[in-house]
Amino acid sequence: MNHCFVDNSCITSVSFHCDQKCGQQNHIPPNIPIFDGHIHLNPIIPKIQSDLVSVRVASPIREFHFINNNHKPDEWLIPNPSSFLSHVHVYPTIGIHPKYFDSKSLYQNFDDLKNYLEISRNDQNLKNKIVAVGECGLDETSMATIDHQIFVLEKQIDLAIHYHLPIVLHCRGTHLYRKLFDCLRSRISDRNMRLHWHCINSNANLHIVDLFLNEFPNSYIGINGSITYETNTERSLMFKNWLVDRSPFLPDRLILETDYPYLPPRNLHGIYDPSCALLATATYLSKTIVDPSQTILSYICSSNKNIKLVYGL
Ligand SMILES: [Zn+2]
Ligand SMILES: [Zn+2]
Ligand SMILES: [Zn+2]
Predict the structure, then answer these.
(1) Does residue 32 lie within any of the structural domains?
(2) Contact at 8 Å (CB) between 102 and 58?
């Protein structure tokens, strides 16, 4: 039994067969995989052992897939997949987060990044392949200047183009959305490039998000637990309305992610188990949008499909 729960959703059904006598409305049928589009598993291996409760079962009923973002140059050790269970698949990305670089070692970092990507390209073992560059982008809480952050971002865009990999984008600071978008537009000539702009919530510049989705047909937005941090501010109301207005095409452009160990959803009670947290975010989304043609399960299935497309899985 798991040590967490979500309103109206059966958490037990994430990892066990449930006879549906639990009284919960929503179940995830067995064999439907769960993909988490953005997670950080590396720095906290001992913690993973305790938090990935739902995947650590004796007789697994589904496969779990995690896009693991290696975003700090001093932690660029791509994890050994064999340390995970056979029904758990971890796909590494590699990149430089705008908060985690040191200008003294920057050129060394670029060299290392290129080397990792080169090794991955030549590696015949699909399990070790790096699936994306990132997360990278702009962050108002970074110590580095915006110009310096843009320089680091542009280098990574160029590498992603060179290695035909998608980019994971991060942007903190509503006023920086325009800058990041302009950077993408000026740097990327192939509009079909695969892009995942992660952590879209009420702090996003939604006008820019619309432009981004229109400009790049293979772009996706990541929704995580931060959408549940509801306040009655104008921003959160605007975001809710935006989700409702965009709901007809949202399933085609949506990626469900956790950003674990950050951003636990508010409607997830108890332990922050990433696989259950995804269900919590999907539950919140379907409650907010209230579209009878969409369900928690349909959001999960759409997100699974989109994650496979963008990361080439
Ligand atoms: Zn149940
Ligand atoms: Zn981020
Ligand atoms: Zn992240």
Answers:
(1) no
(2) no
On whether the CB atoms of residues 94 and 117 are closer than 8 A, the answer is: yes
Distance from the alpha carbon of residue 135 to the mean position of ligand 2, in angstroms? 7
pTM of the model: 0.95
Q: Which residues are annotated as a binding site for a divalent metal cation?
A: 38, 40, 135, 170, 196, 259
Q: How far is 226 from 266, CA to CA, in rounded Å?
A: 8
User: How many whole angstroms from 11 Cα to the centroid of ligand 1?
Assistant: 7
Please state the domain count of the chain: 1
Residue in 124, 191, 180 with CA at minimum distance from that of residue 156: 180
Residue 54's pLDDT band, with cuts at 50, 70 and 90, is confident
Give the type of residue at 311. Y
Gap from CA of 25 to ligand 3 centroid (Å): 31
For residue 229, is it within any domain? yes
Answer yes or no: are the C-beta atoms of 296 and 279 closer than 8 Å.
yes
The Å distance, Cα 22 to ligand 3 centre, comes to: 34
Domain containing 244 — which CATH number? 3.20.20.140
Closest CA to 193 of 219, 171, 168, 173: 219
**107 lies in some domain:** yes
Residue 57 banded pLDDT, cuts 50, 70, 90: confident
Residues with CB under 5 A from ligand 3 (ion): 259
How does pLDDT run across 213-239, given as a tens digit for each residue?
999 999 999 999 999 997 779 999 999
Task: Give the mean model confidence (pLDDT) for residues 22-50.
Answer: 82
Asked if residue 172 lies in contact with residue 141, where contact means CB atoms within 8 angstroms, the answer is: yes
Would you list which residues are annotated within the binding site? 38, 40, 135, 170, 196, 259
What is the residue range of 259's domain? 42-311
Could you say which ligand is closest to the alpha carbon of residue 169? Answer: 2
Give which of 300, 212, 200 is closest to 243, Cα–Cα.
200
Burial class (CB in 10 A: 0-12, 13-18, 19+), 275: buried
Q: Cα(24) to centroid of ligand 3, in Å?
A: 31
Residue at 35 is within a domain: no
